[in-house]
Each structure stands twice: as C-alpha cells, then as structure tokens.
Amino acid sequence: MYRLIVESGERFPYASTAKRLKPSTKKNRPVILVTGGAGFIGSHLLDALLAGAATPEVRVLDNFSSGRREHLAQHKNDPRLKVFKLDLLDFKKAAATFKGVDRVFHLAANPDARWGIDNTRLDLEQETLVTYHVLEAMRRHGAAQIVFASSGTVYGDVGATVTRETLGPALPISLYGAGKVASEALISAFCATFGLRGVILRFGNIVGERTTHGAIYDFLRRLAKNSAELKVLGNGRQSKPYIYVRDIVDAIVFGGEKCAELEAGRFDVFNVAPDGGTTVRFIAEELVAQLGFKGRTKISYGTTAGGWPGDVPVSRMDSTKLRNAGFVLPRSSDEAVRLAIRRILEWLPQRKNAKDDLRLPKDAKLISN
Q1: How far is CA 197 from CA 145, 165, 191, 262, 285, in A?
Q2: Are 40 and 212 in contact (CB under 8 A)?
Q3: Which of 91, 131, 236, 328 might form a disulfide with 281, Cβ 3.0–4.6 angstroms?
Q4: How far apart are CA 156 and CA 163, in angstroms?
Q5: What's the half-sphere exposure (Cβ side, CA atoms, 13 Å) at 309?
Q6: How many structural domains is the chain composed of?
Q7: Strands ordered across the beta sheet of 267-272
Q8: Is residue 179 very low, low, confident or very high in pLDDT (cuts 50, 70, 90)?
Q9: Is residue 141 a part of any domain in this protein?
Q10: How far does the chain reach from its first CA to its final CA, in angstroms?
C-alpha cells in the first residue's frame, strides 16, 4: 500500500497531481523511467508518480553522486518502485533497464553549474553523453516519449531581455548551459529521425526541501558554522526567477501529458518560470529572518555582478506559451523563495541518516511569516 511520508504538515501533497496523470501509449498502463530519480527534483517527481494508483511501475536510475537514499525512504515498501544504482555513462548496463519502458523523465545531470569550472568534462559527460545514451537506449527498446529537464541557462547572458522559447541563437556562458543546449539538439534530432516524442522544459531556479545545492543550501551551511556573519558571492543584486519544487513537479507531469499528445517525430519546448525574479539579497535576508537571526547576523556582499564565472547575473523568462497550453505556476518568484525556505527549515530536523552537513544552526529560533 502506498504511503507518502508526511512533510511540513501536508498529507499526500501530490494527490491533485496524481488525479491529473494521464495514461500513456502502452495499454493505458505506462512503465515510467526517471533518470536522477533520487535527486532533489527527481525524488519529488517520484512522490507524484507513485501517488497515482494507476502507475504500475516506476524505475529510478541514479548513480547517487548527488542523489540521496533518504529521499526514497518513504517508498521502500512500494513494490512498484525499482531502483537501479548505475552510471548512465555505462551504456550497456543502463540500456538494459529501458526494456518495456514507455515514458522517460530525464532529470539526471550535473546539478550545479559551478562544478563544471574545475572539471570541464563534467557537463560534456553528465549532460551531453548521458542524454545521448538515454536517447539511444530509448531507440533500441522502443520507448516512445521523453520529457527533458533543461534550463534557462541555455539563453546565456542577455541582460534584462525577457527570453522566449524562440530566442536564438542560444549562446550559453556556462559549460552547464552548453550541455543543456547540446542535449536539446540531440532530442530534436532523435525525434525527427527515429519517431520519438519529446518535451523540453526550460526551468528557472528550483528551491525547496531535499535541496542538495544552490544559494539557500550554501547559506545554511555557512550559517551553521558561523551565524554571526553570512558572506555572499557577488553583490547580491543577481536576480533570477525561482520556482518551488512541488510546483515544478506539477509542470513536469503536465509536460508528460503534452508529450503523449504529440505526433511521432515531434517535440516541443516550454519555459517554466514565473514572471520577474528574486534577488540574492532577498534570499539572504529572508533566510536570516526566518532563522530568527535578523538584526544580529551581518550579511556581507561582494562587488562582482555575478557570483562566479558563468553565472548569469540577471535572468527573465516568459512562460506565456506554457500558460496558453494550460499550465500556470501558482506563485510568484518571491513567494516561491519564502515558502521554500520555510519548508527547508521544517524538513531539516526530520532528516534521518543524512550523508551531508546540511543542518539548522544550533542557535536558530525559527520564525514563520
């Protein structure tokens, strides 16, 4: 019997999403495969998929480099879940798990754009080559549909220009963004050549519980070591659209529905982000306030526009196409950040068998607003 672990006082948070899950092309009982399913976003997607009683089987492929076994613990007694610990770079082992699969949610990737600075092969392997292996395995085993987690980083640094799906050429300034562009091109080619169906979702920045990277994650780790001062990379005016993780899962499930409606050989692209953006200053100040540190934690900012080489200081994305297709994000960027911080702070004391050093500062006095 499926049981979703209670988080933040909400029982069965994906019940409404589960009701919207539409049947796929194989006898209305699709076998689903999620790459990166133990990760931050992937594990939330897994919750939503397994909340659907009509889901017969979900396979998770993860090398657990950034994914966490704790993210899957609530499903350990669900016989529909099959977890494969393997590296998608090992094509022979990975391809065998695609037999009988109808729909693939491809989320496996390098989770942090900064990591590619020190290891320049990382995004080539974990974005481009991994995506090729996924597509080739799909082709060999007849998997019909792919929903791909891309990113607004594909647009590069275009200042305050509001980016639409038709903006081009795509000129990313990070190796991470370059890997996403290459992956999108491979999906386009495989769909056209081999009759696959594909939906590409270009995300804004995702925040929420089970976080494994990002500004909130970094700030919490620093404050746990020294709550008297928070040092921020860049001048704090970096501004990007943020999405709460459970909202992006709803968008991913919607992407699966749109994918099923496509004709063979076709693919589509959607931006997934709220209007406007949220500054790093807002994130730092909101986190400090919710921890009960307002007035006693000094926030120190740098002088550069970006936080690191390849960081896009300002990003704005237009999701009109997605709204016209029938999906609307339920909250603004600032609202998403505020909610995400609250949910993260509620989640941290509940963690069991954590393998990282993310924790609440010992002197935190949580303030809900």
Answers
A1: 5, 18, 6, 6, 43
A2: yes
A3: 236
A4: 10
A5: 6
A6: 1
A7: 81-85, 57-62, 31-35, 103-106, 145-151, 197-203, 267-272
A8: very high
A9: yes
A10: 36
Q: Is 155 a catalytic residue?
A: no
* 178 part of a folded domain: yes
CATH value at residue 102: 3.40.50.720
The residue to which tokens 């799909």 are assigned: 138
Angle between helices 280-290 and 215-225 (to 10 degrees): 50
Burial of 132 (0-12, 13-18, 19+ CB in 10 A): middle
pTM over 0.85: yes
Out of 155, 176, 242, 244, pick the active-site residue.
Answer: 176
Residue 133 belongs to a domain:
yes
In a domain? residue 321: no
Peptide bond connecting 169 to the previous residue in cis, omega within 30 degrees of 0: yes
pLDDT, tens digit (0-9, with 9 covering 90-100), for 87-98: 999 999 999 999
* Closest C-alpha to 41, from 305, 197, 248, 329: 248
Q: In which residue are the tokens 């994918």 written?
A: 259
Residue 333, pLDDT > 70, answer: yes
Q: Quick check: 154 and 128 in contact, CB under 8 A?
A: no
| Nearest CA among 322, 20, 344 for reference residue 165 | 322
- Report whether pLDDT(365) > 80: yes
Q: List CB contacts of 124: < 8 A, sequence separation 6 or more.
A: 175, 179
Give me the domain span that covers residue 137. Answer: 15-207+242-272
- The answer to whether the CB of 94 falls within 8 A of the CB of 25 is no
